[in-house]
Specification:
- There is one protein chain.
- The chain is α+β, with helices and mostly antiparallel strands.
- Among the domains are: 33 residues; 98 residues, Elongation Factor Tu (Ef-tu), domain 3, CATH 2.40.30; 99 residues, Alpha-Beta Plaits (2-Layer Sandwich), CATH 3.30.70.
- Helices cover 50% and strands 21% of the residues.
- The strands form three sheets. It has a seven-stranded mixed β-barrel.
- The chain is flat, with a radius of gyration of 63 Å.
Length: 419
Amino acid sequence: MKLSKTSKIGILAVICLTILIWGINFLKGRDLFRTEKTFFARYKNVGGLEATTLVTLNGLKIGYVRDIYFAEDLSGDLIVRIAIHNNFPLPVGTSAEIASSDLLGSKVVKINLAKSDKLLHENDTLKTKMAPDIMQQVNEQIAPIKAKAERLIENLDSIVSTASKIFNNESQRNIAESFRQISLTLINLEKISGDLNEVTSNQKKNLSSTITNINDVTANLKVNTVKLGNIMDNFSNFSDSLVKLEVNKTVNHLNTSITNLQSILSKIDTANGTIGKLVNDPLLYQNLTNTSDNLNRLLVDFRLNPKRYVHFSAIDLGREVNVSTSASHQTSENLIFRIQLLSSPSPINLQSPQFKGIDNVSEVKLGDKYYYLTEPESSYDKVRFILNKIQSAFPEAILKPYKNGKEISLKIALKMMKN
């Protein structure tokens, strides 16, 4: 069967078109006769990556970039579709890294395999990485050198500025003046040296006399060596006399006396014996103080009220007259007595345990102090009894009489009671 010319032309056109399509895909890195798997990778920036870019594994081409387009979520991210030949299985966790393939900045996608027993399926998404490009690496290497060069230039500029300030006209004049002063100093040193030479020449005679005197002194010492020996013998005899005085025995007696004295003082300090208790027992001191105060009050009361303590009888014509009066049982109208327990610069709670056993304690403020008093009593005997009872708890307690609400002296109050 013969083909017509038109059929031959059609068959040739189909063959040429097929070859053309295959050639175009071949140039793009696609092999129409090899099966492929497609994977996706998502990047913020692809750094100039284009379609048909090679995909390599350890430097071997295993695929190519089929397409690049923006993500549908309008985030600005770029989706790269990667075609991998079917005979290169990829484990789970494998990453696609965009890197530079040469100094001109051409890009390549490097596949970094992960260590996993599971494999990725077609259309799965790979992890992504961005390797620094050649320019970035060069900049990182050059940046420290650039910084050092800038600092060196700044230091050189500072040195030049300092040098220009040093070698200005005024500095040059100062340097010249310094050299002039150095020259004058050398001249003065030369003059001083000449003066020293002159003084030495003039004092040669005196120096000779001094040396002669020193010789005379040494000669005298040599002559008086015997006398010096006698003096040393006398000192030796004196030291022997000191040894015979038994100084060590005397010092030992003194140390023994000091030890005994220390023992006595220690016993006093530890309250052993009568003197120790007298020195260290504060209660004894307090009791002596309280006894002294009570005795003082007794003497005052005895002086003011002798009839309370002395009873006598007078015989008159056979009649016995007993005189026994006691002002303590007398009361006077509007005359009361209170006991001032204590005074304080700051107020004290009236319910404080300090006032336990005392009823109706009142507080009075006079000036900057607070005074605490017992309730008023019209009986002098009763208030004296209360005072004696609380004296140990309140050593500074005192008795205060009042007339018509006004404080008066105890002497006046006792006279009013006798009247």
